[in-house]
Amino acid sequence: MGLFDWWRSLFGKATTRGPVVPKTGTDADIPTIGIDRQGATWLEIHQPGRSERGRSREEDHTCKKCGGTLEPVLLTTWGGPAWTDAPVAVDGWRCVRCLNVTTPAFLTPAQVHTLCEQGAHAGRAGRLDEAEFFFRRVSASWTEYSVARMQLGSVYLDRIREEEQGERRPPVLARYEAIALNELLAASSGEPPPIPWVHQKIARILMFRGEMAQARRHLGNARRHPDLTEAEREELDQMEAYIARRGDLYDRGGELISQHMRLLDRPCSNSPNATAALHAGIEMLEAFAALNPTHWQSRWLLGKGHQALERTGEARKWFADCWSLEPEDVNVGREYGETLLVAEEYDAAVAVLRQTLDKKPEDAGLMGNLALGLLLAGADAEALSTIHRARAVDPRDPINQTLEGLIEAVHAGKRPRPRRLLPGGALE
């Protein structure tokens, strides 16, 4: 069987009972042809260029091969396993007599407008497959329409964020990144001239790849946009500074650590995904910190990342560095003091917690931390008075309530003094 015969037989089997796909109100009657990965590859290779676009629904509907009547069809991998790796959605024409199929059909401006609206609505609702389906139909027909290509790129930027917050599969991330970059690059040279945002997103992807010269070039392209506002110009200035300091490393690394670090009302996550995310976040933030030696926020996040992995020595190092840069921030002192307690450096911990409490004297949590430090350091009387003060400030704090009973028992000789504070917060 020749290639054309195979192609003809494939589409000859198509009926209106193809895969159920997202459609607009104006094209609900179009037959759907489900294709597999092989069909998607054939389409990719043989897709006509812009000058060879198919007929629109307002043009002659006659088959060039046999003179038969043409009917609109929709070819797609939607609904099958091929959609994940080879997403295709393209409008075409099929001859009702010889079954010859031509693609793409040239959609009318009204159809393009409707499909883009449907895609944007699905994207805002988080239905990324559905959004991609609509935008792929447009970009297959209007290959140089910058709006559709930009929106397709945006869909894959959203996919990248979802994957980074989930399984973080390197091959999947690399594929999403390549598709996003390809679509945005197509948008950057399409019509109408794209908004500066497109070049900014391209620049960010190139930054992730370490291609800084290319990233700066696209920011320069954005700066030459004819309708650039003063606010957008300022944003580009900020983006260039962002590139210079590798802000992408801070953003991505910080997001990964923030999802899994310990908070006052949330314990650390110890799942395999969380551990992998913490390691990746730490690697990014350490690279950022090396480039930005006075950036205290990255050091705080590095301390939290190592804390979540129960690496007390590393957490202590980063919190100490952070404290030296920003001793006035209460959260810095809180974390540094607690890490010193876990490291069994009780005198140093008490000194840091005292200084921190001076900045926020009515913070019951800080009072409790100081009371615990005093208890571990052997200053039982001061520990008792401190925890009583904390309980007076917030009588409903359950942690301080438990700590008060412990300090009173140790002070009265009814139970032995705890030896140390474990990384998870338990006393031993």
Protein model, in words:
The protein has 428 residues and is mainly alpha-helical. Helix content is 62%, strand content 4%. It has helices spanning 3-12, 37-46, 82-85, 109-124, 128-141, 146-165, 170-188, 196-208, 212-223, 230-245, 247-260, 272-291, 296-308, 312-325, 330-342, 346-359, 364-377, 380-393, 398-411, and strands at residues 32-34, 70-76, 89-95, 101-102. A 4-stranded mixed sheet has the order 1-2-3-4. Strand 3 and strand 4 (101-102) form a beta hairpin. The longest helix is centred in the middle third of the chain and has 20 residues, at 146-165. The chain starts with a helix and ends in a 17-residue tail after the last helix. The model is unreliable at 1-17 and 49-54 (pLDDT under 50).
Distance between the termini: 77 Å
Mean pLDDT: 87
Largest sheet: 4 strands, mixed
The sequence of SSEs as H and E is HEHEHEEHHHHHHHHHHHHHHHH
- Note the total helix count: 19
- Fraction in helix: 55-70%
Strand content: under 5%
Structural class: mainly alpha
Are there runs of 5+ residues with pLDDT below 50, and where? 1-17, 49-54
Strand order of the largest sheet: 1-2-3-4
- Compute the number of strand runs: 4
- What is the molecular shape? elongated
Identify the notable features of this structure and list them briefly.
428 residues; mainly alpha; 4-stranded mixed sheet; elongated; disordered N terminus
Secondary structure: elements and pairs:
Layout: H1 3-12, E1 32-34, H2 37-46, E2 70-76, H3 82-85, E3 89-95, E4 101-102, H4 109-124, H5 128-141, H6 146-165, H7 170-188, H8 196-208, H9 212-223, H10 230-245, H11 247-260, H12 272-291, H13 296-308, H14 312-325, H15 330-342, H16 346-359, H17 364-377, H18 380-393, H19 398-411
Parallel strand pairs: 1-2
Antiparallel strand pairs: 2-3, 3-4
